[in-house]
Design brief:
The protein is α/β, with parallel strands linked by helices. The chain is built from 12 helices and 13 strands. Helix 1 crosses helix 2, helix 2 runs antiparallel to helix 3 and helix 5 packs parallel to helix 6. Bound molecules: magnesium ion.
């Protein structure tokens, strides 16, 4: 058997500029990998590199030739374990680049077998939780409008970015615009531990479900301080990057938030989910701003999750790839007729 590989950088404009406590982005640079078998069947996978974790489209492009050389050398898309372990040995770090290849290999393997990926894994499609829709930081009135528009579009769960000196004003505006919505907040490391505990009190009064990454990942004792005193459950995102972070956060948070662009692939994501469960944590899967070449793959994991935050493609002005339906926030794996991840070019 022989496999052909290729990759391509794409610049994907966002529907609206997206701001979190660390900065603003107006477009997402993704790198799309294609792996094609002798019969002309192609698996696709996307990398959505995050500068926060040391990757850019350029670093992804720099390491993909070595990663794809592994795929071509193994030559069999069903030899997933061998491909993944040889990729990890060839290239350390660079998780978004490895994730793109991992996704493309899984997509091709499942397509060759004619089954959706979650079926290959034996998962119950009906167990997928709904995804949240993220509202970034902005002027308070714009945040109110965006929250109202998301509710109007049918999304029942909103994730609100915080980490400003207007946090209370922002959450009050969102609550007024979306009285029935399930709300989650993400401070992206912006608060001090004491500030986070104080904010958890009034966030609980506004019926927020949980607080994501209140304090810097570099302050694990601060995270523990918040966890022990918070009025709300705490999710760890920047504090939960790879498998070996899971035991370290187990007594410092309630929810582990994994992302394919942090784990470097699908098998590692499933290992992290298992490890988090073994440590008594709930599990969320989040994303960067990503096309369906990677979001559709993350959606295949949804039956294993307590919470999904897989709106990466929904935040794009246009996605060149169609994926798993997420109307009304429902991750529609049930009845998925497409084999593989479900990503298809429009
Ligand atoms: Mg987050």
């Amino acid at each position: 058997m022989s496999l052909d590989t290729a990759f391509e950088r794409v610049s994907l404009p966002l529907e609206d500029p997206f701001t979190i406590s660390r900065g603003t982005q107006t477009e997402a640079e993704n790198v799309i990998v294609r792996i094609t078998d002798e019969g002309g069947m192609t698996g696709v996978g996307g990398a959505a590199p995050s500068a926060h974790y040391g990757e850019t489209a350029a670093t992804v492009e720099a390491v993909l030739p070595d990663l794809l050389a592994v795929v071509e050398s193994v030559g069999d898309p069903h030899a997933i374990r061998e491909i993944e372990s040889r990729m990890a040995a060839a290239i350390g770090g660079n998780p978004a680049a490895r994730a793109a290849v991992s996704i493309a290999v899984h997509d091709l393997a499942a397509k060759r077998l004619g089954v959706p990926l979650h079926r290959l894994w034996g998962l119950d499609a009906s167990a997928a939780p709904a995804t949240s829709y993220t509202v970034g930081l902005d002027e308070t009135e714009r945040v109110r409008e965006k929250a109202a528009a998301a509710v109007e579009a049918g999304y029942p769960i909103l994730k609100i970015k915080l980490g400003t000196d207007r946090d209370r004003e922002l959450i009050d505006a969102v609550r007024a615009a979306a009285p029935e919505a399930r709300l989650r907040v993400d401070a992206n490391e912006a608060w001090t531990p004491r500030e986070a505990v104080a904010k958890s009190e009034w966030l609980a009064d506004r019926d927020v479900e949980f607080v994501e990454q209140p304090v810097p990942a570099a302050d694990p004792e601060g995270l523990r301080f918040v966890y022990e005193r918070s009025a709300l459950p705490i999710a760890a995102d920047e504090s939960c990057v790879t498998l070996d972070d899971v035991p370290a956060i187990a007594d410092r948070c309630d929810i582990a938030n994994l992302k394919l662009m942090k784990t470097g692939g699908l098998p590692e994501a499933r290992r992290m989910i298992a490890a988090a469960r073994a440590h008594g944590l709930e599990v969320m899967c989040g994303c960067m701003i990503e096309s369906n070449t990677s979001i559709a793959a993350a959606a295949q994991l949804a039956p294993l999750l307590d919470y999904a935050d897989l709106d990466g493609s929904l935040l794009l002005a246009e996605d060149p790839y169609d994926g798993i339906g997420m109307g009304n926030g429902e991750i529609r794996l049930e009845g998925q007729e497409r084999a593989g991840t479900g990503a298809r070019s429009e």
